[in-house]
Amino acid sequence: MDSSAVSTDWGANVPLDDVSGRVAVVGVGESEHTRASGRTPTEIAATAVERALADAGLEPTDVDGVMTGPGVPDQLDAEAFHAHFGTSHDLWESSAGGGMRWAATAPVAAAAALDRGEASVIVNSFAVAWATQRASMTGGPGQTHAEERFKGNLEVPFGWFPQPVYFATVARRHQHEFGTTEAQLGAVAVTCREHANATPTAVMHGRPLTLEDYLASPYLAEPFRKEDCCLISDGGAAYVMTTPERARDLARPGVEVAGVGLGRSHTGTHWAQQEDFTSTPQVFAGPAAFAMAGIDPADVDVATAYDPFTIVSLMQIEDLGFCAKGESGAFAEAGELRVDGGSLPYNPHGGMLSHAYVLGIAHVVEVVRQLRGEAANQVADAEVGIYGGYTGPEAATLVLRRSDR
To answer: With bands split at pLDDT 50, 70 and 90, how would you rate the model's confidence at 8?
Structure first.
């Protein structure tokens, strides 16, 4: 099926201010990514921010802006930042950051604050302790969805819950429409595990997975096996933003924010009713971000995308224009997503499938490290990288470009 034939009347691009060349990412940091650890999200985020500031060569007192995400409690907001670092200076604060699609769009709010002089050094962070909380079945993604009113009233009563069940339905539809096979889903899982095994910080480091292993694994929700599903982790990450002018004076070269796009489904959280069931709002976000950056998909050297399930990886790869609609399964099966020899090195750290489930912010950290040439599983000569954020009803694309000062 040609991608030009895909219906686009079920959603739209959300116009954003042009931020190309207005923001630079100058530091990145991660906490340890683990199974249940007993840590709180605030503690985890503080560790990530400490490491991001050290990476940028900055002190806590240099930070005058903090960003966290909406809807997830116990983040490193202004009050928690001061409590942890022992500071008391004025901080610009925004909840338009964090993970998921906001990890991609945070630079838009940051650019506005930098332009207005409300902040000069802004940290975006996000953390979860869902592996620790899972023992009590509270605070994780299942609870978040169950408490959403549309899902609770119109989907859960019919058994369309939790996430593996309804994304397995999406995968089955993709199989029906395009002939996607289980082995092709498995190619995504195996590739991400290979990348995680080359990344020492990955939760699944040292736990190899072959396609034979994948196909021998029992079904979780047909056609899904557990390897089609993301991890549940404790962990977090952070990145530091400032102006390109200030970035030139810091110890490390900044990575330029070249473009940002945001797409939204008209059905919102009740996306079971989305007309184009096998597409994501990246069909709207990706072209807008690429246009802002002045690039085409062929110019991308390394790609990361929010990957709660293998099918979401395949759909976003199509919707971002890296292959025609319906051809991502064959694309993955041919090895095109591999760092070693693929045309589109994808989630080189292992993604949420095998690195850590910290809702996408570690993907941005990975892209920055790739563009600085210091990733554990380095893509050769990477100059342009992207992160595709996703929530279901929304998707966002962040384009980052290597800066040589």
So the answer is: confident
Report d(CA 166, CA 176) in Å as an integer.
15
CB-based contact 288:370 (threshold 8 Å) = no
Entry pTM: 0.96
From the candidates 239, 357, 387, 390, give the one annotated as an active-site residue.
357
Residue 117 tokens, joined: 């002089």
Of 187, 230, 188, 278, nearest to 1 (Cα)?
278
- The predicted model gives 364-368 an average pLDDT of 98
Active-site residue 219, yes or no? no
Question: Would residue 357 show up in a list of annotated catalytic residues for this protein?
Answer: yes
* Pairing mode of beta strands 24-30, 234-242: antiparallel
- β-bridge mates for residue 66, sequence order: 93, 123
Select which of 306, 346, 387, 390 is catalytic.
306
The better pLDDT of the pair 380, 4 is held by 380
